[in-house]
Prior knowledge:
CATH architecture of the domain at 4-109 and 111-147: Up-down Bundle
Number of strands: 9
Shape: globular
Number of helices: 27
Helix content: 40-55%
Strand content: 5-15%
CATH topology of the domain at 4-109 and 111-147: Glutathione S-transferase Yfyf (Class Pi), Chain A, domain 2
Amino acid sequence: MIQAESNPFYGKYNTPFETTPFDKIKTEHYEPAFQKGIEELKKEIDKISNNSEPATFDNTIVALERSGKLLDRVSGAFFNVLSANANDEMMEISQRISPSLTESSNYIYLNERLFSRVKTVYDQRETLNLNLEDRKLLEETFRSFQEKGANLNAKDKERYKELTKELSLLSLQFDQNALKDQNRFEMLLTDKEEVAGLPESSLEAARFAAKEKGKEGWLFTLDAPSYVPFVRYASSRTLREKMYKAFMSIGNKGDEYDNREIIRKIVNDRLAIAQLMGYPNYAEFELSHKMAKNSKNVYNLLNQLLEAYKPVAINEYNKVQGFAIGKEQQDIIVQPWDWSYYSEKLKDIQFQVNDEMTRPYFQLENVKNGVFGLATQLYGITFKENKQIPVYDKEVQAYEVYDENGKFLAVLYTDFFPRSGKQSGAWMNGIKSQYIDEKGKDSRPHIIIVMNFTRPTESKPALLTFDEVETLLHEFGHALHGIFASGTYASLSGTNVYQDFVELPSQIMENWLTEKEYLDKIAIHYQTGAKIPQDMVQKLIDASNFNAGYACCRQLSFGYLDMAWHTLTTPFEGNVIEFEKNAWETAQIAPDVPGACMSTSFGHLFAGGYAAGYYGYKWAEVLDADAFSLFKEKGIFNTEVANSFRENILSRGGIEDPDILYKRFRGKAPSIDALLIRNGIKK
């Protein structure tokens, strides 16, 4: 056991802006700090629930909101590192502490005395003269108790405890199985013929990866910077198929990392929880507190978009199919592992632009400065690297963020490259939330954005693809949502908004990438310093809607899959692969691949927070297209529109209903028209 005085989590952090002292934290510090944090939280809860004074907003609701500071501090550090830099020991700790964390949550929400006090305050809400934010906190606190079982009878409460404890472990196990299964795949190629078609950037990265493992040749993995270029450019159809099937079999091999049984348990546990709460299925339970409200509205959006985009997608597929037949001079059927390859070839012919032409103009350092610069131009904020801020990995960078008046806003961490203990994909998280403390001081947030970009090699800096630049803008949008947080309460601050609203701040940022004025600012050749040629910019813009129908249908298929898993009304005992095939069939364009399965590695659904919420990406896409149309109308760098977006969307957190916030910014309700126009579906 680590002694109190030697555990960096205890006491005040003597670091810039009280940032997490990652340089002093060792793996063995986490578990005792979690235990102490849980003990302190329980004491705080006991104090609130056993208070002999009548329940008030301050002594019950606010006191509850401000409880658990040590636990928040430990969790903020641990779970970020677990996602971005994990080892086996960290994974074992996560499994050991998970039941205790679930138990501590149940200790709050299944506490009858505490709920009685919360309900007393809630029942008096009309007479308390609360301001908007205080009232929202009260309503959300009461709702949380209801949704987490406070109204259940004693028998059902015990059942709820069992289900939530099991769910937390299952989600962890799902995530770790997928990571371990993905990491064990390696494809070492030594014959030049086998790597034909691959650009030099991919080959150099693959040579470097092989060298790091003491091998000769080219080493490919299922990490995005390795996998994506391979299926896009490799001439060998056999090897593309091998890579695709390896990717689509993550967590689906019938061994110790197989996730199919875990999926069954997760969806059945979620269903059981929803039905305990009086809902027919998990989707209705989850959606009751989102913009969409219910599954009918979700399906209405999905079906509306499918009707508009599917004919376009089928036409796009047929064009690529015809192109492939002409290129190969044989009657081949374009399979999923062929799609990116032939699409890229056709795109190159139609628009004379591809990733390898543009990549030299997207050096990571320049792009990052360009992304920061966009925030400066729109909002007046500035970024200053601080190498004194401790980080959890030598590749992580930390920045101080300041408002245009010099006021400190946030600490922003960036973590750009793949490593063995890192989950795939890209994300933004908060290490510390923003809130106003007991003394009235504005405690500013610590934000992290995590990517898996193409690494620098021995001869080249990190050069990004167009899609990778888009990803950076996306996650940076989430970061701005956190950076501009200005609420009193952490639970209503920053990105703590309805899930189908949270993607608006991120997705709107992607729009600037197809604007000439912006591209010209960030795209600079890493060797010559020359700006990207204007004809290339135009080609990128012209190509931005290439196969937009197919891309939309792919995204819709994920939404249909998610909804199918979470609209089940009876326990699932069937075949996971067959279920998936049937669930998303209506939105699938390319032929089905027997045995392939995405669900078994779909962390958003089974290990993240997007269960019954994946539709939110398309929901927010409607919002972001509609919102950006105002920038297009007034000017893409218009500070008046930007400040309105900041004031009404980015800084408001979850204080008000998103429908109200959006209409206040836009002056009207959103429609899908702007999205259809942006994608060239509607003129």
